[in-house]
Amino acid sequence: MNIHEYQAKALLKEFGAPVSNGIAIFKPSEAKAAAKKLGGPLWVVKSQIHAGGRGKGKFKEKSAGDKGGVRLAKSIEEVEAFAKQMLGATLVTIQTGPAGKQVNRLYIEDGSDIAKEFYLSMLVDRETGRTAFVVSTEGGMDIEEVAHKTPEKIKTFSIDPATGFMPHHGRTVAKALGLSGDLARQAETVAGILYKAFVAKDMAMLEINPLIVTKDDKLKVLDAKVSFDSNALYRHPDVMELRDITEEDEKEIEASKYDLAYIALDGTIGCMVNGA
Ligand code: ADP
Ligand code: MG
Prior knowledge:
- The protein is α+β, with helices and mostly antiparallel strands.
- It has two domains: 90 residues, 2-Layer Sandwich (Dna Ligase, domain 1), CATH 3.30.1490.20; 115 residues, ATP-grasp fold, B domain (D-amino Acid Aminotransferase, Chain A, domain 1).
- The protein is built from eight helices and 13 strands.
- Strand 8 and strand 9 form a beta hairpin.
- The model has no long low-confidence stretch (mean pLDDT 95).
- The structure holds adenosine-5'-diphosphate and magnesium ion.
C-alpha cells in the first residue's frame, strides 16, 4: 500500500526525521489560509498523487499552466493561483503512464534553500533477506539513470536484522554522501531514524529523493515515497487509515476485498497464478 508524500512526512516526523513545515489542502479556498499560516517568504505547492516525477510532470489541461506538478511560489497570491490551476487537473509524469492522475490534494510546504540534493532509499532485499540501504550523492534526478550511467555513484549495503542499525551503518551513509563534521553526524542520525521508522511500520520501500543539505547546513527530507507491506497492515491501523482508494485501481480495490493479490496491467495478455 502506498501513501502520499505529506502523510509519509508526518509519519517520519513522529520518529524525529527533519522535514519542512507544510499543510495539505483539498480545495483552492484553503490555499490562502495555509500559505499565511506557514508564513513564507517561499512556498512550494506540491501535487499529491501516488507517483513520482511530479516536478518534471506536465498537466494535461491548458488551464493548469505549463509549469510542472511541484511549483515554487513567492507570494500568497501565487500559492492561491497555483492551487486553483492544479487542483482537479490531470498530472502526467514518467510514472503515471499517459493517462496521468487527477490531483485531488496539494501539499503547501515551506520552501528550502537547497545547497545539495542526495538520494537515500531503503527496501526489503529478498536476495539477502535484509533491509538494504541505497545511497547516492546524485539526488533529485532519476536514480535509474544514475544506476545505468554511473553505477559507481550508488552505494548499497544491508542491515543484519539480528543487530539492527549500528553506528557504523550511519558512518557508511555519511561517507557515501561525502559528508564530514556536523553534517556527517546529522546523516548518521537521520539514517538511524529512517531505519527505525522502516522497521516499526513494516515498510516495503522508503525513498527520499531528494535528501537535501540546506544553505545553512541542515540535512532535510524534502521528498518521501513510502509503501507498506500489505501482509503486515493488520498490525498498523494508523497506517491503514492513510489509504487513499481514489489513487488505486478499481479492479485492485475489488480484489483486495477478497484478500486477492491482484495487479492490474495494460494490454491483452492475462496471467493467473495460484500457489499454496
Ligand atoms: P518528484 O520527485 O515527484 O518530482 P519532489 O518532492 O522530489 O517531487 O520535488 C521535485 C523537486 O522540487 C525537488 O528535487 C526539489 O528540487 C524541489 N523541491 C521540492 N520540495 C521543495 C521544497 N520544500 N523547497 C524547495 N524545493 C523543493
Ligand atoms: Mg522526488
